[in-house]
Predict the structure.
Amino acid sequence: MISLAGRDIMHDWGKFVFTGVGLGLLIGVTLSMAGIYRGMVDDGKALLDNSRADLWVVQQGTLGPYAESSSIYDDVWRGIRAMPGVEQTANVTYLTMQVHQGERDVRSMVTGVTAGDPGSSGWPPYLVAGRQITRGHYEAVVDIATGFKLGDRLKIRRNHYTVVGLTRRMVSSGGDPIVFIPLKDAQEVQFLKDNDAILQQRRRTAANPAFNRPQVPGLLEDVISSQSTNTYVNAVLVQVAAGYDTEEVAQSIRRWKRLTVYTRSQMEDILIGKLIATSARQIAMFLVILSIVSAAIVAFIIYTMTLGKIREIAVLKLIGTRNRTIAALIMQQSIALGVIGFVVGKITATLLMAPIFPKYVLLEPVDSAIGFVAVVVICILASIIAIRAALKVDPAEAIGG
Amino acid sequence: MTGKGIRIEGLKKRYGRGDTAVDALKGVDMQVAPGEVVGLVGPSGSGKSTLLKCLGAVIEPTAGRMILGDEVIYKDGWKVKDLRALRRDRIGFIFQAPYLIPFLDVTDNVALLPMLAGKPNHEARKQAIELLQSLDVEHRAKAMPSQLSGGEQQRVAIARGLVNRPPVILADEPTAPLDSERALAVIQILNEMARKFETAIIVVTHDEKIMPTFKRIYHIRDGVTYEEAGEGRGFE
Amino acid sequence: MKRFPVQKQTLAIMVVLLPLLALFIYVSLRSGPLAPIPVTVTRVENQSIAPALFGIGTVEARYSYKIGPTVAGRVKRLNVHVGDLVKAGQVLGEMDPIDLDQRIRSQEAALKRSRAQVDEALARQNYAQTQARRYEELLAARSTSEEIVTGKKHELRVAETNLDAAREESVRVRAERDALIVQRRNLLLVAPVDGLVVLRNAEPGTTLVAGQAVVELLDPQSLWINVRFDQIHAQGLNANLAARIVMRTQAAELTGRVLRVEPLADAVTEEILAKVVFEKIPDPLPAVGELVEVTVALPALAAAPVVPNAAIQRISGQLGVWQVVGDDLHFTPVILGAADLDGHIQIREGLKAGDQVVVYSAKALTLRSRIDVVEQIPGVPR
């Protein structure tokens, strides 16, 4: 027995492949949607992994530092460093803002990393070009997603920074690329305002008679300079020493330092459960809608293809072809269409959509496998409608009236 | 059973029920011996198509008997379980239009039937090619139906009808689209095949060109058949 | 075997489908999580590096002077403007004497009166002396009584004490007058040293309290830079090290040296403070308060295995590098030595020259990662 489905496909293969490609684009979009969701989750995880921290110490009662703003003094780390089980601590600040370079500006998360050596918490764990920051000021390591190159001069607030290193996949939970600068500069960025605002503040302080006492020379200058220093950071990253239980160390910090401490899994819950929950729901809905639309389109295509063959089917039935054979013809065609669609879809998603989409698209093999099974199942189900129509055909129609 | 020839006795077919019932066949008698080619003539609405469909085991008659060779295939109900197998193996169809499967080549169009019957592919194709040879169309064995002329397509259709060596062949206006030379050629082939394979062939037609070739002609009118002797002329 | 009905058609299909299939397989295996991770490697080489320390500082004046009145008063005039160079002793301005001149005149008058009083007392004393002597002679000649002589002696003594009193009174009045003159002189604002006027704090007519500065001077030759170095990166900072100074307003780099490392560090910002002096004070004079970047060069170290600092990783609490041995990836713990500002770090222990280490990687590496050595990580802009 020859394969009727195969022959039919080969006879009209151009149209078949063309239809498959069209279907494939739709499947590609669906796979990309799944990839976008995974990419969002991965963004959150990447942020946590790249911090190389076991614990995040933040302001009491906040969900910070990513989900909520948190401010703690920059000497809090000293008390934590001395606690048992703490291997390393590092101050860190985060601020999402526009970073300027030449004519353009890019939305980035400016991260202040504590002075130290490579390997410290908060520092970029690996680079794709250049070097790590060596000077205590005015150097930056940026993510390639910003579009900046080595040697570019960035302008953040009022200072200029030279790009000395590039990273990849260092993004905030919202997908904004990270710009690493020394902590002291970052503290200035976060809490020191622009020149106009500073002038206003000075004027107001000078107008205040409590601060502007002529009998106390130097008082005004001291007050103004105290207003322009900043002693806050957003969080302290803690690495737990080997052999200690992370949750126990977290508990002791919570109890004795009266700060809020989150472990890695708690941070993941916050990031994925709270920050991206809404977006995740939106994407899940899109995914469902796209799948339904894909199923409907496959069903429609197969049905139309079957209707176009109704006369041949009548003849086949008349000359004695079994129902099973005819059903197999339709179902095999449907599955072949699905396979072509899936192949095209996977290629489109990987080579076309993933690189150009502004957010990170993560296509995992398990998603592809599930997608493949789903496509085949949808094709089989969709072909059933067409098969029912085919089997209802009266072979007597082949014999004219 | 593999007997030859077909006989119909008192075949009736009623469509519908009660007041709106229509009796398309009111008691048809017909018989065709192996090797015979008979004509079946009648105006539209006479029950011609209904008779053909009953003969082809496509619809179920209401009453009567149908005997294929030695086997009673219908007697107040189908006596054969697998109608499809019946159609596939023991009744051949030749339609007004070739109705070839467009996505199979000529050989496979003909070989499809033996394949469906369970024959291995190469045997089925051998069988098909023999038949194509007899019909002088073997040189087009690898072409697709769309590449054939009308006459060639018709001959392939005839080959398909014959390939399983069915005892009965029903031909529905096989010469309608052809000119007189081709039409006579088709009838000639049918006669040759009938003789060669001892097939009973019923040709439904109202083509004047081929009417003289039949030895016997059945007229059907108002659901009843009348037999008439034909001229049985040879071919000029 | 079955032959396809139309060879050309089959060929056409294959031409379309086979590349599609190949692309699909490529896409499945080479991208996404299944793909090997592109990395770049470099050879460890023995190099001598010249570490340097980097800090930012502000230009300050070592010696600056705030000139102002010692008593509350009003500014009468100012002779100098910001930017003027003044010499030591130059009068910069003057406070308003208000009633001081009148009081001096009054004291002078009082002084004159006291001198007149001294003269008067002197005259009286002379007379009393003369009288006392006469009466003593008369007593010797028994022409007068002892009582009168005693009386005359008493008058002499009284006149002498009156003279003393008048003299002391005169001294007192003179001293008071001198004091007022000194005060009057103090109203002159005088430059203590050669310097540059940098601030003119109050205009003539303004009332000031004692201690408020009217004019601020600094010694331009005493400009230095107050530099802050992160404590963690200040090893080796010492006096007399050469320094390169980059100022925001000057195009060229300047040279200087470290004058001293401050004994008091900043505990709040965790910085070490140092003073760096210019080798030659630039002209035009840099502004006080201007931000500068200072790089202090430390002596070059002996050659040792050197890796780029991008290669250093901390895995499970240990500092080390990913080493490529043959085709395998190993994590080699290292002990770091000194680093320079260009990103080279010396390795004290753990690596030797000729070892291959991973410098850049497209993803975080683990022991189970499959790697693919490339020239440049794909996606990195040139």
In short: The mean pLDDT of chain B is 84.
